[in-house]
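Loading example: each entry is read as three labelled lines plus one structure line.
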Amino acid sequence: MIESLQLLIDVSLLAFLVIIVFASIKMTDLFAVTMLFGIFSFVSALLFLDLDAVDVAFTEAAVGAGFTTVLMLSALRLTQPYENVKHRHSLLALFIVTLTGAALFYGIADFPAMGDPNAPVHQHVAPEYIQLTQEKIDIPNVVTAVLASFRGYDTFGETVVIFSAGVAVMLLLGMGQVKHEQEPEENMVLWVVVKPMIPLILIFGLYVQFHGDFGAGGGFQAGVIFASGFILYSLVFGEMYARRVMPAPILPRLAALGVLIYGVTGLISLLFNKPFLDYTALSSNPVSGQHLGILLVEAGVGLAVFSTILLIYYSFSGREVNHNE
Amino acid sequence: MIAAAVVALLITLALTLIRAFMGPSIYDRILAVNSFGTKTVLLIVVGGHALGWFSYVDIALMYALINFVGTLAVMRFFEQYSPDGEQL
Amino acid sequence: MMIIDWLSDICLLLGGILTLTGAVGLLRLPDFFTRLHAASVTETLAAMLLIIGIMLDTGLTLDSVKLMLIILIMIIANPTITHALCRAAANGGTTPEVEQPSKSVTQTDLQNSSDNEVKTETEISGKEAK
């Protein structure tokens, strides 16, 4: 019963993905395509959940369905809403794509079955991590343990990449200015409803941040949820007030502070004659040292992600709209 | 009975998708996407309980919030366009 | 605990039927505002019923408290989105399709019937006065 249900959900969701992709290629109205991409992210998150990848589904839902759609729309605001349809059909492109696709399908035939415990990818470091998490770190969520402790250096690199993405957007677009004529119209229902929801969203973001050891969550997802609370305020009450609550010049400094927290946690271990980012140096008991280290590191990641996302949103929505008609 | 609910939700997702393709105006599409998001939350809750997904309640909770914020964002950006594509 | 199982089954069944009804309405109704009405009414109620059904199945744990929180968020957020969509569509220029009134009820018919009522009332009051 459960097997057939799983199969049904798998097949339906994959069919949805294919249909959405075909429809978004055929349509020329770019707003509609952006909407379809939003639906695509929803379906992808469902598929990730179906494959038992909970943290990935969390991040896909937070970033893909909400934030990417908002960014694409604010970029679309500055160009035309209809795609220029080219009426040339290139046979060479079709041939190359078909050849590449056939080669990929041929390669798939050699893969091991999904979830096969004897597959080579499951023999390398994965069983060691799963075993050592119980002994050395003692938290239920193995993904957070691998992300923050065993592969902490990789996550440091990811945080620096996110920070540099924010810096790049800031260099290219600037952070926008406060515009006085952009106050949205008075909409009493939205104002009254959204005001109590914003603290709830922020508290939920904090919950996800600190609960990442035990369930799905962690620094990345928490940063996005926290930022979406501020984005909601900016959408409903106007950018002028949002920039008063969280001024734009603070954000790059906050992002840098997040990366700095991460790096300093690693440096403290160096001061105690241990390797970089070895959390056992942070406390007398190695397991509680790991807990403290993961806490600090996730806080740094959450801070960096929150400030970068809010910075990118300010940059995109603060651009002057060209009246090119 | 949970299986019946899951099947009903999958059929609903398909029908909502058809409206997202077909909808003649922009607002139809926004409605379809919002509806799709709500049905996704329901599918996560019902399917997660039936198939034993790990920690599905947190994801459903966050999805409900992100659906709300995302739809409001889309509407705010659409308000600056009149329906035939010019800027207001 | 058979009653709770039955209640949970009924809630799930009703929720599934309402979801399907809402989707069919979303597809078949002719105008944007009618579709909005169909989607929003069944969406909030069907969501509540389905989640209550799962809550009854889970029992009294932390998960069911979080599910109650999801219901609360949906009760607040879905009608707000409906209102905002309706207002945005109306401001954007979408008007609802209104049928022309049919020929059997015209303005003169309405006036004639109201005159008749006034006449009968004065007749009655006249007779009582006499």
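The two ends of chain A are 60 Å apart (CA to CA).
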